């Protein structure tokens, strides 16, 4: 479509290309988010002591595989598996011996657990119900293992009232949300903590990072990150708009889409608008066997307890 390569072998039609141009954008996105998180590629409290460090790590929707390569350096004795609907298509000059990339559909194919750590990042628009992915991760973790999700909240925010009510990026985001709701929602970040709790995770934590949409911050670090975020957002906008907007229920023509996007890009680059996106990072731990047994016993005890009666009746 529009000269780009898309992957169709999914439960829902994956809305982004899987070509080299998109891979370059994803790698830039990865570097931006890592810098935003202070150079950290994960936030879960994983042990680095070889006796307690994770032995098997799974990255669901690994994209280019760059996160797996970074994790392989941090945990040299761990087996790192990256799973995606397409082969981690960036041809790395050297793949560490402890990294394996597999082609797999997270909805249809086995995850081949158990793992000590399962990671997802920017999975919006990939599942009709992302809670089922959280459940699948829980089921494929060792007791005591961790899951972490790093997710974009695709709705612009602004704290100083410089964003007008008719800001075109917000309009574009509402269009995107409307179309995505028919197949795979994109607004999942704010629900992650609740889903983690509902499937059984404990020790759940959440951090929210703000990334400026352009160079408006005076802070030099955020100024640079905002510029890079603007570049990757504007550069990828046609790719992750065309398939949405030319489909049900909008049915725009490709020319209509591009004319509209030119206006949206101009709005994004307006430094008078101090807007930002939010990135939610949520992590939680699967209970140990002992914790699970205690919870089961407590639940069993409460269900077997006879209701109190009033002896005077």
TrEMBL record:
Residues 297-313 have a biased composition (Polar residues). GO terms for molecular function: methyltransferase activity. It comes from the Eukaryota. SUPFAM superfamilies: S-adenosyl-L-methionine-dependent methyltransferases. InterPro entries: SAM-dependent_MTases_sf. CDD domains: AdoMet_MTases. Residues 291-313 are annotated as: Disordered. This is Methyltransferase domain-containing protein. It comes from Venturia effusa.
